[in-house]
Amino acid sequence: MQRTLVKDALHATAPTDTIFLQGWVRTRRDAKAFSFVELNDGSCLKGLQIVVDASLADYPAVAHAHTGAAIEVTGKLVASKGAGQQWEVVATSFKVIGEADGTYPLQKKGHSLEFLREIAHLRPRSNLFGAVFRVRSRLAYAVHQFFQERGFHYVHPPIITASDAEGAGEMFRVTTLDLENPPRGADKHVDATKDFFGKKTFLTVSGQLEAEIFACALSNVYTFGPTFRAENSNTSRHAAEFWMIEPEVAFCDLTGDMDLAEEFVKHLLRDVKTHCAEDLEFFGKFVDKDLAARLDFVLEKPFVRCSYTEAVEIIAQSGKTWEHPVSWGDNLQAEHERYLTEEHFKCPVTVYNYPRALKAFYMRVNAPDAQGRETVAAMDLLVPGIGEIIGGSQREERLDVLRESMARHHLDEKAYWWYLDLRRYGSVPHAGFGLGFERMLMFATGVANIRDVIPFARTPGAAEF
Ligand code: 4AD
Ligand code: MG
Less Cβ around it within 10 Å: N or C end of the chain? Predict the structure, then answer.
């Protein structure tokens, strides 16, 4: 018989004579004449109540249906007499498929997030993580939908690469050399020509440079895949492995890029609101009381746009004492980003035109300002509670300026010959950005730690599972 998912059973419009369900026991309550078993199959937050009459031939099996056990139930879907649910199932057959005993760690009681991280193989069975990972799945679908509906093509950049797209030197080395006894050249240095790829290779920090190649052929493209950064920052917003979405658009400037970023973020939030209402309600109750109000607020208003220079002035005039005072040319720190979004503007803010010296080599150089200061056409989208969720820019399409920027960053032109070729043949203004998928999930769910929105977090000192 065909399995019905709990989600569909709960949305039934009429009783059903026979229904077949499979799932796991959340709780069981035994009365004299019958038992109530709550069956959850992860298709939605709620479970379905199964009533097993003590006169049923299968009734002895119920005694083995402890919390966590896998069960199969056939029965009738009927209007529930109990409060809190519209439907329940009166069992005609009840089987335990996989037992779970009292050592099952997810007994019905509250567990700390730290404890649940240690049992990442079981935590998807909890209400919170079931909800997080359903939202994660839905958001991934919404990413593709957004771009596909707008004529963007999905590109798969390589995961193993020889180039440092961000030039920040935060890459994980990929090697098959014997680390105990690596081949060495005459200069005693490890001989990378003997390595698997004949040169030094790494896990990618960003698919952007490859996305640019494809934008300069297919016009509108996006990537969506894992990226890796060996930053040793143990914060609630940094992971060593995270997923990034990177659209890249030919014939596009910074304004078009900021417009696309805003439309994209709003699309994703609108989509989860529509399709994950029950899970969001759960987050609103147990994770972040202000979630619903914040999502509505973010969706209603345009995001503020503020140049870096204006931002520095606002911060200077705030009258606050900063741990890191900023003057023009300094990086904005988390405390400044939070002030801008949470106190000054009280909404998402796109900061643009950053000092040239702070940003990556590929960003388009703006004309100097009245005081001769140089900026690049970069933008960061900052949101309340999290800070940066998007980083992007218009790219330098002028060969001579790009070469000069590469020289400033001490990059070897020979290694980036193909990137320079894009500026030699049919170069066009183009722009793109990267959205950190986990940061977006934190924003959409209110979950405060990045370790709790990715199935198996990779952070300094932690690579379990
Ligand atoms: O600002 P980033 O470094 O920009 C780039 O990588 C560009 N190549 C993007 C582009 O223009 N195509 O990273 C983009 C976003 C950040 O805004 C942040 O949301 C996320 O990626 N991110 C991280 N998320 C989790 N853990 C980390 N360690 C992250 N580093 C960046
Ligand atoms: Mg950034």
Answer: N
What are the tens digits of pLDDT across the range 272-324?
Answer: 999 999 999 999 999 999 999 999 999 999 999 999 999 999 999 999 999 99
Q: Strand, helix or coil at 182?
A: coil
Is 287 in contact with 131 (CB distance < 8 Å)?
no
- Within 10 A of 422 (CB to CB), how many other CB atoms are there? 22
pTM, two decimals, is 0.97
Q: Which two tokens stand for residue 226?
A: 């894992």
| 220: β partners | 249
CA 277–ligand 2 middle distance (angstroms): 31
Q: Which of 206, 214, 243 to mutate to test the pocket of ligand 1 (most atoms within 8 A of CB)?
A: 206
Mutate to test the pocket of ligand 1, among 242, 331, 430 (most ligand atoms within 8 A of CB): 242
Measure the CA–CA gap between 462 and 453, rounded to whole angstroms.
16
Atom of ligand 1 nearest to the CA of 168: 3
Sheet with 201-203, edge to edge strand ranges = 160-161, 201-203, 173-174
Rounded to the nearest angstrom, the distance between the alpha carbon of 206 and the centre of ligand 1 is 8
Per residue in 402-422, pLDDT (tens digit) is: 999 999 999 999 999 999 999
Quick one: angle between helices 208-218 and 417-424, nearest 10?
A: 30
- Residue 238 — very low, low, confident or very high, per pLDDT cuts 50/70/90? very high
**What whole-number distance in Å separates Cα of residue 28 and Cα of residue 68?**
10
Rounded to the nearest whole angstrom, what is the distance from the C-alpha of residue 127 to the centroid of ligand 2? 33
68 CA to centre of ligand 1 in angstroms = 38
Tell me the average pLDDT of the chain. 96
Q: What is the pLDDT of residues 50-60, one digit of tens each?
A: 999 999 999 99
For the chain, the straight-line distance linking the first and the last C-alpha, in angstroms and rounded, comes to 35
pLDDT digits (tens, 9 = 90+) for 384-394: 999 999 999 99
> Do 444 and 295 meet the contact criterion of CB atoms below 8 Å apart?
yes
Which of 234, 249, 439 should be mutated for ligand 1, with most atoms under 8 A from CB?
439
Pocket of ligand 1 (CB under 6 A): 165-166, 206, 208, 229, 231, 238-239, 242, 244, 246, 388-393, 432-434, 436, 438-439, 450
Judge contact between 432 and 245, C-beta under 8 A: no
Residues with Cβ within 8 Å of 211's Cβ and at least 6 positions away in sequence, in order, are 155, 157, 221, 222, 223, 246, 247, 248, 432
CA of 127 from ligand 1 middle (Å) equals: 29
Q: Which residue has the least CA distance to atom 21 on ligand 1?
A: 436
